[in-house]
Inverse folding.
C-alpha cells in the first residue's frame, strides 16, 4: 500500500505465516475418527440447565457450590435457558402441574441433548405415591442417567455426570431417545 | 378465671351462646359454634382486639357425619400469646361466609379449603383452585378420594389475572404487555410462577400461581403411621429440615402428653438454631443472586456446607435428616459433637460480619432494596405475616419469647425488630438473627445437659437395638410397635414453633388409630406470599424479583 508521500510500507511477511501454519499441521496429527473427536469435545463441555424444583434442587446448589464444584468436569456454565444448554438436570419432584412445562423446556433444547434425573422423585416419584405427583420424569421425557438418593449426595451426582460423559464418549445413547415424541402431541 | 371462661362471659354479653360449645382439649381452647355466627364472632374478636391474628383456616372431612365438614379457624393473640380455635360444621352443598373482609389474609386459606374439600365460602371474590392443576377434577383431601389417583395435566395454564375482584382475568388489556415469569425461569426460584402485566417496566397487576410443587403432604400424612410422617416433614421447608421435624414431633408429643428429657430438648434447640442459620444463608445468598451478586452465594455456601458436615456427623445425612422421633431423638450425639458445634460458631461469628460487609454495606444492594416495596405493621398483621418479615415491619413477635418451649425462656437472646418493613430491613433482621442464633447455640453447647436422649416409654419409643437382638422382651416390644404403630389418644392439637421464616403450625387430629386422621400444616410463607400482588403493584419488575427473594419462599411448604 502506498502512503501519501509515496513510500512503501513494510508488508507483513506472508511467507512466514504460511510456513508456521504448515509446521503446525505437521506437528499435530489427529489420529482419530471425526465422530470420536466430536464426542470428546461434547463430553468435556457440557452446559447444564438446572431444573431444580424441590429439595434436590437445593442439594444441586451444593454440587455447583464451592466444595463439590461441578466446574471441574467441564460442566462449567450453568445456563437457565434451554437454548443455551445441552444437559437438562432434573432435580426434584415433578408434579402433574409441572409436567407440561418440563416437556416444553426439553423440546426447546437443541440437539444433541442429554437428561440426568437426580433423585428418587425425578426418577420414580419417590415416596410420593400421591395424586398430584408424576411417577418419574421419564413418563414424559427420555432420561439418560438416573441418580438414586433422596437427595443424592453431591458425590453421587458427580458420578452421574461422569457416567453420562462415558456414554457420550462411547456413543451409547439411549436407543429409544430418537423415537421420543411429545406425549402431548395429540392434544396440541 | 381461665382464659376460656373469660371468652365465655365476653361472648355471652353479645351473642346468644345457648348452642355454643366451649371445650378445653389438650391445653387448647376450642369454641364450637353454628356457621351463622362465625363471621360476627370473628369480627367481635378482632374489633375488641382480643385476637389480632388469623393464623389459618382449614377443613376436615368426616364422611359418616350428617354435616360432613368441619371448618376450623385458628386465632392468635400477640398480646398474651394465647390461641383460640373456632369450629363449625357444614353439610356437603352448604356454604359459609368468607372472612376475607375481616382479615385479608383469609384469602388463600379459604381457596385452599375450597380446593381440597370443596367447602364454599360465600362472598370470596375469587374462589377457584389453588394447589391442584386446572384440569383436576374432585377434591383430593376428602376421605373418599384415593391417595394415588393421579390425573394428568396435558397443557400449561395460559396467562390470566383473575385475582382481582370485578375483572375478567382472562381478558388482557392490550395497552399493557403481559409477561410470564416462571416456573423454571432464570429470574424466578424453581417452581414459582408470577404473571404480570407491564406498563413499560411498571407492574400494573400481578398474579402468582402456585401448586407446581403440590406433593400432597397432607394426604401422605393420613396414609402413613406417625413416625413415618417425619421424613415427609423434612421435605416441607427443605432449607431448614430439622425445624420441621421438631415442630411435628412437638405436636404429637403434646397429644400423647409426654415431655422429652433435657438432653433431647437441648439437641432440638441446637439443631433448630443451626437450621435457622443455614436457612437465612439461603435467603441472603440467593437473594443476592437475584440482585446480580453471585460471589456472596459462593462465599455463604461454604458455611452452609460446614453445617451440613455437622449434621452428617450427627446422623449420617445432610439435607433431609429426620433426626427427631416422637419422644426424643433418634440417637445420641457422637463424641465431641457439641465441641464441633462450638468451633463452628466461633468461625461463623466472624463470617456474619463479613457477610454484612459484603452484602448490606454494598451501595448497589442498598439502593436496590432500601425503601423498596415496604409493608407496614398493620398490613403485615392483616395478611398473617410471621417471622423475620413481620419483625422487619416493626412487630415484636417471636414465639420463642411469646410462648417459650424447650427452655428458650432460660436462654439469653434478643429479638431484632425493623422499622420500615422494606426489603433492606428484612435482610438486616435475618443477619441479626443469625448472630442471636449463634449466641443461643453457644450457651447450650458450653454446658450440654447429660442424661438420656429419648424417653423410654415402651408404647412410644422403639427399644435399643441391643435389646431387640438380645432379649425376647425387647424383640416383642419392637415387633408390637412396628406392627401396631404408635397410637395417641383421640383428640386434636394445634402446636406451633418459630421456624426460620415464621410460625410453623401443625394441626393434628387423631382418631386413636396408627395414622393421623388429619394433619394440617400452617406454612409461614403461604400467608406471606398471598400479599405479593398488592405489595408489588406499581413497583418495577426488578423490584418484584427482589421482593420474591426477600420473602424466602420455599415451594415445599408453600404448596405442600
Ligand atoms: S428425591 Fe427426596 S430430596 Fe429429592 S426432591 Fe424428592 S423428596 Fe426431595
Amino acid at each position: 500500500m502506498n502512503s501519501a508521500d509515496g513510500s512503501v510500507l513494510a508488508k507483513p511477511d506472508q511467507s512466514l505465516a504460511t510456513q508456521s501454519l504448515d509446521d503446525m499441521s505437521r506437528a499435530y496429527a489427529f489420529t482419530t475418527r471425526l465422530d470420536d473427536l466430536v464426542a470428546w469435545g461434547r463430553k468435556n463441555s457440557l452446559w447444564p440447565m438446572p431444573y431444580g424444583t424441590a429439595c434436590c434442587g437445593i442439594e444441586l446448589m451444593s454440587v455447583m457450590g464451592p466444595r463439590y464444584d461441578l466446574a471441574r468436569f467441564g460442566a462449567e456454565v450453568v445456563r437457565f435457558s434451554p437454548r443455551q444448554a445441552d444437559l437438562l438436570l432434573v432435580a426434584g419432584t415433578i408434579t402433574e402441574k409441572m409436567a407440561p412445562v418440563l416437556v416444553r423446556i426439553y423440546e426447546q433444547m437443541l440437539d444433541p441433548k442429554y437428561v440426568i434425573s437426580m433423585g428418587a422423585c425425578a426418577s420414580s416419584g419417590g415416596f410420593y405415591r400421591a395424586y398430584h405427583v408424576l411417577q418419574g420424569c421419564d413418563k414424559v421425557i427420555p432420561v439418560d442417567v438416573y441418580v438414586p438418593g433422596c437427595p443424592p449426595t453431591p458425590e453421587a451426582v458427580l458420578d452421574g455426570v461422569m457416567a453420562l460423559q462415558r456414554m457420550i464418549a462411547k456413543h451409547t445413547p439411549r436407543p429409544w431417545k430418537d423415537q421420543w415424541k411429545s406425549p402431548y402431541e395429540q392434544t396440541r | 378465671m381461665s382464659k376460656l371462661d373469660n371468652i365465655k362471659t365476653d361472648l355471652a354479653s353479645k351473642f346468644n351462646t345457648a348452642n355454643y360449645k366451649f371445650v378445653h382439649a389438650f391445653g387448647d381452647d376450642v369454641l364450637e359454634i353454628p356457621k351463622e355466627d362465625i363471621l360476627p364472632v370473628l369480627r367481635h374478636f378482632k374489633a375488641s382486639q382480643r385476637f389480632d391474628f388469623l393464623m389459618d383456616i382449614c377443613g376436615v372431612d368426616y364422611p359418616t357425619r350428617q354435616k360432613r365438614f368441619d371448618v376450623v379457624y385458628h386465632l392468635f393473640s400477640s398480646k398474651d400469646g394465647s390461641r383460640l380455635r373456632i369450629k363449625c360444621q357444614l353439610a356437603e352443598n352448604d356454604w359459609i361466609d368468607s372472612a376475607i373482609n375481616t382479615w385479608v389474609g383469609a384469602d388463600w386459606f379459604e381457596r385452599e379449603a375450597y380446593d381440597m374439600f370443596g367447602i364454599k365460602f360465600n362472598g370470596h371474590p375469587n374462589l377457584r383452585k389453588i394447589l391442584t392443576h386446572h384440569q383436576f377434577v374432585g377434591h383430593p383431601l376428602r376421605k373418599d378420594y384415593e391417595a394415588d389417583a393421579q390425573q394428568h395435566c396435558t397443557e400449561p395454564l395460559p396467562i390470566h389475572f383473575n385475582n382481582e375482584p370485578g375483572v375478567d382475568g382472562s381478558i388482557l388489556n392490550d395497552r399493557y404487555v403481559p409477561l410470564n415469569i416462571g416456573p423454571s425461569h432464570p429470574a424466578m426460584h424453581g417452581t414459582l410462577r408470577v404473571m404480570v402485566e407491564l406498563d413499560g417496566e411498571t407492574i400494573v397487576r400481578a398474579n402468582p400461581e402456585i401448586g407446581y410443587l403440590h406433593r400432597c403432604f397432607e394426604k401422605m400424612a393420613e396414609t402413613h403411621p406417625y413416625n413415618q410422617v417425619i421424613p415427609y416433614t423434612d421435605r416441607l421447608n427443605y432449607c431448614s429440615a430439622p425445624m420441621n421435624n421438631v415442630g411435628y414431633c412437638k405436636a404429637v408429643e403434646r397429644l400423647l402428653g409426654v415431655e422429652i428429657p433435657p438432653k433431647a430438648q437441648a439437641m432440638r434447640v441446637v439443631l433448630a438454631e443451626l437450621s435457622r442459620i443455614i436457612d437465612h444463608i439461603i435467603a441472603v445468598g440467593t437473594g443476592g443472586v437475584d440482585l446480580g451478586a453471585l460471589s456472596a452465594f459462593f462465599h455463604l455456601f461454604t458455611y452452609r456446607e460446614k453445617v451440613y458436615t455437622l449434621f452428617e456427623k450427627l446422623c449420617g445425612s445432610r439435607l433431609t435428616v429426620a433426626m427427631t422421633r416422637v419422644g426424643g431423638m433418634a440417637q445420641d450425639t457422637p463424641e465431641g459433637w457439641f465441641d464441633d458445634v462450638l468451633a463452628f460458631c466461633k468461625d461463623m461469628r466472624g463470617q456474619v460480619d463479613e457477610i454484612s460487609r459484603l452484602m448490606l454495606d454494598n451501595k448497589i444492594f442498598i439502593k436496590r432494596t432500601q425503601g423498596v416495596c415496604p409493608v407496614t405493621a398493620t398490613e403485615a398483621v392483616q395478611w398473617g405475616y410471621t417471622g423475620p418479615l413481620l419483625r422487619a415491619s416493626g412487630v415484636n413477635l417471636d414465639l420463642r419469647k411469646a410462648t417459650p418451649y424447650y427452655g428458650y425462656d432460660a436462654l439469653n437472646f434478643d429479638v431484632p425488630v425493623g422499622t420500615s418493613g422494606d426489603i433492606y430491613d428484612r435482610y438486616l433482621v435475618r443477619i441479626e438473627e443469625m448472630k442471636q442464633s449463634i449466641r443461643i447455640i453457644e450457651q447450650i453447647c458450653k454446658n450440654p445437659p447429660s442424661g438420656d436422649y429419648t424417653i423410654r416409654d415402651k408404647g412410644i419409643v422403639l427399644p435399643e437395638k441391643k435389646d431387640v437382638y438380645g432379649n425376647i422382651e425387647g424383640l416383642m416390644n419392637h415387633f408390637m410397635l412396628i406392627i401396631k404403630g404408635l397410637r395417641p389418644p383421640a383428640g386434636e392439637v394445634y402446636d406451633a414453633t418459630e421456624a426460620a421464616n415464621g410460625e410453623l403450625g401443625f394441626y393434628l387430629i387423631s382418631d386413636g388409630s396408627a395414622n393421623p386422621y388429619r394433619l394440617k400444616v400452617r406454612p409461614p410463607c403461604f400467608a406471606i406470599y398471598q400479599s405479593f400482588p398488592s405489595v408489588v403493584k406499581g413497583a418495577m419488575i426488578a423490584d418484584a424479583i427482589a421482593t420474591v427473594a426477600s420473602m424466602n419462599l420455599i415451594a415445599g411448604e408453600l404448596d405442600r
Notes: Chain B has 20 helices and 15 strands. The mean pLDDT of chain B is 87.
